[in-house]
Design a protein that fits this description.
22 strands; about 30% helix; about 20% strand; alpha+beta; about 525 residues; five-stranded parallel sheet; globular
Length: about 525
């Protein structure tokens, strides 16, 4: 029986813990409360080929198409192939997916060729899944340590051997482990506008990198096209996710003149891939002096909106907006990290004993742009696979290793800039990343961002230090990819490069290296 520490308590962490606890001694540690991660905010649903008129092959094809040529096909086939069985297991655990007169209800989202997205509570899918998994963990008697910040992944003799934690009372402690499973989510707090909760500070990615694990594809952050733009108490603005499923049900985007501008951007208009819609909105906003575009759902009617999207409906009404009668202002916002800790299809990283599952990981399943509602599925599928692999021999050579390619010369130069002495400012970092490494990028902006980030003095170990470290790595990775692909758009290199698409791999304390990984 192995000692297993699972760090994180969203869908990936709780599923990994439940499966691993069938054979091992498991402890869950989580930075906040057990339900404070990103999972409970997932609105749209979970995609899986569970309906008679759908197929795994079609789901695979849609995922590959959205990923813009950078998907690892083996990972996509694992994601889509395992999906139906894993979803049925959720139902057996008590997840109450919505139903209609024909059985399980389903929605259509952008870039899906079939309506295959299951949802719960209308637009509260993540919250319902979190509720059921939390109950299952409690029933199983698995130890849970809340308020525990991951300081470091411990390494002994070249393998992960536990975690160093800072507890809520400020004390430090360590937990020994035979296997460490990172399920810490993404890095949305790198950006000025994000749909992510405040705890999404990339802690697991940064800790894995310091421990010696390879990272991959950090330049690929998905920006959700439609976040409700609301005034904040400080005079700025705040965002609230408006699910892509709203557009799937027929809502449309309009500019300040009331025109449906996406009709001129892509044949699928509002249901084009997320990166296309997000950039289309950004261009339209720039053309109207930064004013937000609006999402017009008025044709759907008040009763339908309240029943199908109760969470969004409540948020709109709390802000004094009746979205059944007037369009709502929306803006793109950082939403999901396709890159992360490089893993194989069993969650194994390049550091023996260290697993990564969910958004913290980069399996290659999402490629350059995640297909809508594949995120909950990713956490579910690969957490199960990782739990099954605990105790097995570690593969050799380690995952994602290949012959070194070429890194951009400018990236090398910027990585060698001396450490600055300016006190760290998180809001300034978020502004730098939003402007320099957001929806539209170019060499001038990325180099400026790199220099500004280099000017900060590294904070004491904690969230801010993780954000600064990851911000520098994201910018370096974006500089090294001199093409536009999926969520990564370079106005100075507006087309995909010729030849086989390459992943950007970061070895510890190195500059990005392009390597070819089978796609």
């Amino acid at each position: 029986m192995a000692r297993v520490v699972v760090v994180g308590s969203g869908i990936a962490g709780l599923v990994a813990a439940l499966r691993a606890a069938e054979r091992h001694d498991v402890t869950i540690v989580t930075k906040g409360g057990i339900a404070e991660g990103s999972t409970r905010y997932a609105q749209g649903g979970i995609a899986a080929a569970v309906f008679a008129d759908d197929s795994v092959a079609d789901h695979v094809a849609d995922t590959l198409r959205a990923g813009a040529g950078l998907n690892a096909r083996e990972a996509v086939e694992a994601l889509c192939g395992d999906g139906p069985a894993r979803v049925r297991e959720l139902i057996a655990l008590g997840v109450a997916f919505d139903r209609d007169g024909k059985g399980l209800a389903r929605g259509l989202e952008a870039a899906h060729s079939s309506a295959r997205v299951l949802h719960a509570g209308g637009d509260a899918t993540g919250a319902e899944i979190e509720r059921a998994l939390d109950a299952a963990v409690r029933e199983a008697g698995i130890r849970v340590v809340t308020g525990a910040f991951l300081r470091e992944v411990l390494v002994t003799d070249g393998a992960a051997s536990g975690v160093a934690l800072r507890l809520a009372d400020g004390t430090d402690t360590e937990l020994d482990a035979d296997a460490v499973v990172l399920a810490t989510g993404g890095w949305g707090q790198l950006y000025a506008h994000t749909t992510n909760p405040a705890i999404a500070t990339g802690d697991g990615v940064a800790a894995a990198y310091r421990a010696g694990a390879l990272l991959a594809d950090l330049e690929f952050t998905q920006f959700h096209p439609t976040a409700l733009r609301l005034p904040a108490a400080d005079g700025g603005s705040r965002t609230f996710l408006v699910s892509e499923a709203v557009r799937g049900e027929g809502a449309v985007l309009r500019n300040a003149h009331g025109e449906r501008f996406m009709l001129d951007v892509h044949p699928d208009a509002e249901l084009a891939p997320r990166d296309v819609v997000a950039r289309g909105i950004a261009v339209e906003m720039a053309a109207q002096d930064g004013l937000p575009v609006v999402l017009d759902a008025t044709a759907l009617g008040a009763d339908f909106l309240a029943h199908r999207f109760p969470t969004i409906d409540a948020a709109c009404r709390a802000a004094g907006i009746d979205w059944s009668r007037e369009p709502v202002p929306v803006t793109p916002a950082a939403h999901y990290a396709m890159g992360g800790v490089a893993t194989d299809i069993h969650g194994r990283t390049s550091l023996p004993g260290l697993f990564a599952v969910g958004e913290v990981a980069c399996t290659g399943a999402h490629g350059a742009n995640r297909l809508a509602s594949n995120s909950l599925l990713e956490g579910l599928v690969f957490a199960h696979r990782a739990a099954e692999a605990i105790g097995e021999a570690w593969p050799e050579p380690p995952v994602w290793v290949a012959e070194p390619g070429l890194a951009a010369a400018a990236t090398t130069e910027l990585s060698e800039l001396p450490e600055g002495d300016r006190p760290f400012d998180r809001s300034r970092l978020q502004s730098i990343l939003w402007t320099g490494a957001g929806l539209h990028r170019d060499r001038t902006g990325l180099e400026r961002a790199a220099r500004e980030l280099a000017g900060f003095r590294m904070p004491e170990p904690g969230e801010d230090a993780n954000l600064l470290q990851l911000g520098r790595l994201v910018v370096a990775s974006a500089l090294s990819r001199e093409e536009s692909r999926g969520a990564h758009f370079r106005s100075d290199f507006p087309l995909p490069s010729a030849g086989t698409p390459r992943h950007t791999v970061l070895a510890p304390l190195s500059v990005p290296t392009e390597v070819t990984v089978p796609c």
